[in-house]
Amino acid sequence: MPTESKNTDPDEEFNNSTTIQLDDVTVVYRVPHERVSGLKEFAIQWLQRRLRYEEFLALHNVTFQVQLGEVFGVIGRNGSGKSTMLKVMARVLTPTNGRIRTRGRIAPLLELGAGFHPELTGRENVFLNMALLGYHHRETERLFQAIVDFSEISDFIDAPLRTYSTGMVARIGFAVATSVRPDILLVDEVLSVGDAPFQQKCLDRINSYRQQGTTIVIVSHSMTTIQSNCQRAVWLSHGKVMALGEVNQVVEQYSQFSGK
Amino acid sequence: MQINSGNIYDSSRRPHPLVEEIISLIKYRDLVYQFVSRSIKTRYKRSVLGVFWTMLNPLFMMIILTIVFSNVFKVGRNYPIFVLSGLVLWNFFSFATSSAMGEMIWSGALLNRIFMPKSVFAVSAIGTGLVNLLISLVPLFLISIILGGKFTYALLVLPLSIIVLALFTLGVGLFLATTAVYFADMVPVYEVVLTIWFYATPIIYPIENIPPHYAWILKLNPMYYIVRIFRLPIYEGVLPGLPDWIIALGCALVAVILGGLIFTNKSKEYAYRI
Questions:
Q1: In what order do the strands lie in the sheet with A53-67?
Q2: How is chain B classified by DSSP, letter by letter?
């Protein structure tokens, strides 16, 4: 567990060198016992006071900090709460209990291309996705050429997206999400898209952002990816922190545990 | 190393959900524009007649209803203008409320991955509806010119009528979107409600044709007043009375404030449920 005491003034803890701070973050999914999708069933069950939910603890009292410019790894088996944690950081989920604070602009690289529409052209999709990240179209116009150049699809930019290959869509997705250096970059197993040269290009861009002070959180099942990129890591199991600290130690503990 | 220190997110120090929603909606205003242009473009991209469908659809309805009802209701030779003005308004209302609800349910892939103000779907549905409404005003005025309808200064209040209509529609849309997250049945239930509501609103018939001792029931319906402030300037060429304005605007404000409160009160749960 982290060393900082919980009794100190919370604002003092969250100083300028900390970009992400989780304090006892708990996320509870409420799964209805039987799937209540109908009004009638809901009314009946509510009247009978037997509308019960199965509570699923996706994250349980998770506390840690990520420092400015750090590359932080999150490891754990499927269903351990890694993706939930990224969603809490990305403000998609609000913690059921506890507190999360983040500093600066966050760019999620979660499942590239979630916001793409097949009937629209590449150009229209770039503008749509930039708007999804909160950019005004005037800013997008300014960044447009750089996005197209990076994704190497200038010949197809006015063709409908349905004519694109999966790799091309992924390239635009990455170029859009990283068109402006974010303060926090959330990476969820997406570095394996595209061919080898493009992957290298993505890694180069991420590294250059890191050198400029971007904090990076990487979720991965690949221990090589985690160990070669991160300084510190957290190991989650069933929503709880099993180990936290220097990356090699955490990976070693995780490997020993999983090896059994 | 530049960090925008004013840009701190703290999950335990957040403004009132409604305030937070409005602030982020303003920040994400371009997303509303993108969603509206996306749905207009994708709607017309593969169709030959394109934008004309938006004009033709109410025109065909008007022709059919005129043939069927003009003798039944005895509204005179300008019945086409009467019925078309009601239909374009109703089409807007039913389209925008249904898609505010539908877009919300089908947006799970986005809501689950990226942070955004959740009301963009409802607001964009209103925006798309307004574009279609403005397009269908073209055939309405063409028919009005052909049939010698009344063009007076009263038409200048139409933008105000449309704003009241849009506010009321947004309120209803936000309420529906909230309920649809919890009950998948809401979509078919609302289709039935819309059909009943359509006949309970004087759109294809004039309220004067309803016996006076039943007419008060129809006047409990907010849409009665909203149709009135929209139709009177077009059909009769007169300004709606102050009581009509007050009731219509009052209903619209109550709807949009209540809808906004209900929607934002639950908005933290949507990502868990959709």
A1: A53-67, A18-32, A97-103, B8-10
A2: ----TT-EEETTS---HHHHHHHHHHHTHHHHHHHHHHHHHHHHTT-SSTTHHHHHHHHHHHHHHHHHHHHHHT--TTHHHHHHHHHHHHHHHHHHHHHHHHHHHHTHHHHTTS---TTHHHHHHHHHHHHHHHHHHHHHHHHHHHTT----GGGGGHHHHHHHHHHHHHHHHHHHHHHHHH-TTHHHHHHHHHHHHHHHSSSSS-GGGS-HHHHHHHTT-HHHHHHHHHHIIIII--PPPHHHHHHHHHHHHHHHHHHHHHHHHTGGGHHHH-
Is A88:A8 a contact under the CB 8 Å cutoff?
Answer: no
Within 10 Å of residue B220's Cβ, how many Cβ atoms?
Answer: 8
Closest C-alpha among B128, B135, B147 to residue B63: B147
Task: List A185's β-bridge partners, or say none.
Answer: A107, A216
Cβ–Cβ below 8 Å for A16 and B42: no
Answer for the pair A161, A128: CB distance below 8 angstroms, yes or no: no
Residues facing B270 on adjacent strands: none
pLDDT band, very low/low/confident/very high, at B112 (cuts 50, 70, 90): confident
pLDDT, tens digit (0-9, with 9 covering 90-100), for B12-41 = 888 888 999 999 999 999 999 999 998 888
End-to-end CA distance of chain B: give it in Å, rounded: 38
Q: At what angle do helices B52-73 and B120-146 cross, to 10 degrees?
A: 60
Token pair for A90: 């990305």
Residue of B nearest to A132 (CA): B31
Structure tokens that stand for A182 in this block: 């974010």
ipTM confidence score = 0.79
- Residues A91-109: pLDDT tens digits? 888 899 999 999 998 988 7
* Chain B interface, best mutation among A84, A92, A137, A216, by max B CB count within 10 A: A92
pLDDT at A246 over 90: yes
- The shortest C-alpha distance from A257 to chain B (Å) reads 31
Tokens 């207009």: give the residue.
B40
The better pLDDT of the pair A34, A240 is held by A240
